[in-house]
């Protein structure tokens, strides 16, 4: 029996620069790793300086910056300091807000909406001139709040609004391409923080019920994000990566 030879290909991002806003852990860090493996230089940001320094060192990052991406003056300063033009920007900053209306932490809910709605708008406004024509903006959203449930009111706003926002941004900043990746549950440090003692039970449940027979990991999302950077025909769309979770 003969084995077919492996097909060699050039790295998909060779000579390009990928900026990852929220790149010190989870999906952002995994995407930065894959971008480096595909030949790109990377610029990473995060709010935690120590964690960001470790990530930047591991990646051999071209540049790193510790700041809160929802702080507009800090975001503008960061874009002003980028090597120009960069090729791609991935935004993973922000966390979902879950909670009943009666118990709502309004400040935390507002920060979540800032990260999922205003941050993409600000990044898109700053992109022309900083991102080359034909480059990409990739935003990370989610699928978990598509079905109404108690405690998901704020998360549902971002889940519903982001696809429409991305489609409109794609028209406004063309020929820069704009796309949205919408994961379901992903086994990340953020998921561990949100679920606490319930993490193992959630992993077991999904492993037993998802059509793919396993839990989605950061590398699955990173592979899709990098594909959106490489495939120049894609813009204005939302791409789910949930292992079939919505089918259950």
Q: Would you kindly provide a written description of the structure presented here, covering whatever features stand out?
A:
The protein has 248 residues and is an alpha/beta fold. The chain has one domain: Rossmann fold (3-Layer(aba) Sandwich), CATH 3.40.50. It is 42% helix and 17% strand. Strands 3-2-1-4-5-6-7 form a seven-stranded parallel beta sheet, sandwiched between helices. Helix 1 links the parallel strand 1 and strand 2. The longest helix has 21 residues. The chain is globular. 42% of the residues are buried.
Q: Architecture, according to CATH? A: 3-Layer(aba) Sandwich
Which strand order does the major sheet show? 3-2-1-4-5-6-7
Strand content: 15-25%
Rg over alpha carbons: 18 Å
Uncertain parts: none
The CATH superfamily is NAD(P)-binding Rossmann-like Domain
Overall geometric form: globular
- Estimated helix fraction: 40-55%
Listing every helix as H and every strand as E from the N terminus to the C terminus, the arrangement reads EHEHEHEHEHEHHHE
Give the total of beta strands.
7
User: What is the terminal separation in angstroms?
Assistant: 41 Å
Biggest sheet character: 7 strands, parallel
CATH level 1 name:
Alpha Beta
Whole-number average pLDDT?
92
The structural class is: alpha/beta
Task: State the CATH topology.
Answer: Rossmann fold
Number of helices: 8
User: How many structural units, i.e. domains?
Assistant: 1
Question: Any key phrases for this structure?
Answer:
single chain, 248 residues, 8 helices, 17% strand, Rossmann fold
């Amino acid at each position: 029996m003969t084995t077919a030879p492996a097909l060699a290909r050039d790295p998909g991002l060779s000579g390009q620069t990928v900026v990852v806003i929220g790149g010190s852990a989870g999906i952002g860090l995994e995407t930065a790793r894959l971008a480096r493996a595909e030949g790109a230089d990377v610029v990473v940001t995060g709010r935690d300086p120590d964690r960001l320094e470790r990530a930047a060192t591991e990646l051999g990052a071209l540049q790193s910056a510790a700041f809160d991406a929802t702080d507009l003056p800090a975001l503008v300063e960061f874009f002003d300091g980028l090597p120009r033009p960069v090729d791609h920007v991935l935004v993973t900053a922000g966390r979902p807000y879950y909670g009943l209306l009666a118990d709502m932490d309004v400040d935390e809910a507002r920060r979540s909406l800032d990260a999922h709605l205003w941050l993409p708008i600000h990044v898109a406004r700053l992109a022309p001139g900083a991102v080359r024509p034909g480059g990409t903006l990739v935003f990370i959203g989610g699928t978990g709040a598509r079905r109404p449930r108690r405690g998901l009111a704020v998360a549902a706003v971002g889940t519903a609004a982001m696809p429409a926002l991305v489609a409109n941004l794609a028209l406004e900043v063309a020929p820069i391409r704009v796309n949205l990746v919408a994961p379901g549950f992903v086994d990340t440090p953020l998921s561990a923080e949100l679920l606490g003692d319930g993490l193992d039970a959630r992993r077991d449940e999904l492993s037993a019920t998802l059509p793919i027979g396993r839990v989605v990991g950061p590398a699955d999302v990173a592979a899709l994000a990098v594909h959106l950077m490489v495939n120049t025909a894609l813009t204005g769309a939302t791409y789910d990566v949930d292992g079939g979770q919505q089918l259950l």
